[in-house]
Design brief:
By secondary structure, the protein is an alpha+beta fold. The chain is built from 9 helices and 7 strands. The strands form 2 sheets. Strands 2-4-5-7-6 form a 5-stranded mixed β-sheet, with helices on one face. Strands 1-3 form a two-stranded antiparallel sheet.
Length: about 300
């Protein structure tokens, strides 16, 4: 047991030595976190890592010996004491520094991945904006030219619908939008398609967006409706499209039915829509487990059923 006089004579020295050791452990923690781990551990150079640790331990021994000789009197320096008192604190500083570096890098990687996903979603949304069928636009404009020549009373409301559709696509879809806005956009698109096809196709739509506070990611539903017009028109007998939307207790229920003919050899507009695969990916990224999508074929009907938890 140490002589009580030893503590009395070396009270300040012990304080200085303890402070120096703690400062060294802090420095070792950050050196390991910001230099040893990224430069040696990440590069899978274990021998260099081990040799560096041993070199550091030797430096710590030298510093401890020098400090002990400077501040402690009456007791010889013992290497075994240095090892017994410092082995576990040094090991903790090293493992703690490595764990800290791994956690920080993991967080940064997840943040980069999230930013990348967000950027991809923005790119896909920009692509989606440009992918509303050019043929649809050309036909609507041609219809309006014919209306202008006939001085039809339908020209002005058609222009208003087209204007609102374009405004929504270009300026109002950078963030989540009110569900009512999305429904208005869908209805304008359906109305213009009805005007385009006239009596050659039966279109039924019933959409009840619910409360005003409900929001949805923009242009998420239009690909399903556009796909219905893409594949549910043309060489199809008794062509019919049904679009229904309803919200119950924050759950959006959206269904689209269209008749189709697998044997139809009609060429479709390849630029129309972004494809159901892309829509499914976008839904998975944006709503993850808060959505359910079923796409089925029932007799001569193609059916899309989508549920999204909005709040």
């Amino acid at each position: 047991m140490p002589d009580p006089k030893f503590f009395e004579q070396n009270r300040d020295g012990i304080t200085y030595l303890t402070t120096i050791n703690r400062l060294i452990l802090v420095i070792l923690f950050y050196v390991n976190a910001y230099f040893l781990t990224p430069k040696l551990y990440y590069r899978k150079n274990p021998w260099a890592f081990i040799l560096t640790i041993l070199a550091i331990f030797s430096i710590l021994l030298l510093v401890d010996y020098t400090s002990f000789q400077a501040f402690i009197v009456g007791v010889p320096y013992k290497v075994t004491n240095f090892i017994s008192f410092n082995f576990f604190p040094v090991l903790f500083a090293l493992t703690g520094g490595t764990a800290y570096r791994l956690i920080i890098d993991r967080i940064q990687m997840e943040r980069r991945e999230k930013d990348k996903v967000n950027e991809n979603l923005k790119t896909e949304l920009s692509f989606l904006r440009s992918q509303v069928s050019p043929h649809f636009m050309f036909n609507v404009l041609n219809n309006m030219v014919a209306m202008a020549r006939l001085k039809s009373a339908q020209l002005e409301p058609s222009l208003i619908k087209l204007s609102s559709l374009l405004r929504y696509m270009l300026y109002e879809t950078d963030e989540k939008v009110p569900l009512k806005k999305e429904v208005e956009y869908l209805q304008s698109y359906i109305d213009l398609q009805q005007q385009r096809f006239g009596s050659s196709i039966k279109i039924r739509s019933k959409m009840e967006p619910g409360e005003a506070y409900l929001e949805i990611e923009p242009m998420l539903l239009i690909p399903f409706v556009e796909n219905a017009f893409k594949h549910g028109t043309g060489m199809i007998e008794n062509a019919e499209i049904i679009v229904e939307l309803k919200v119950e207790k924050c759950m959006l229920n959206f269904t689209v039915h269209n008749k189709f003919n697998e044997n139809s050899g009609e060429m479709k507009d390849k630029t129309s829509g972004i494809g159901l695969v892309n829509v499914q990916r976008r839904l998975s990224l944006l709503y993850d487990t808060h959505h359910s999508l079923m796409i089925t074929k029932q007799s001569d009907w193609f059916v899309v059923s989508l549920q999204i938890l909005l709040c």
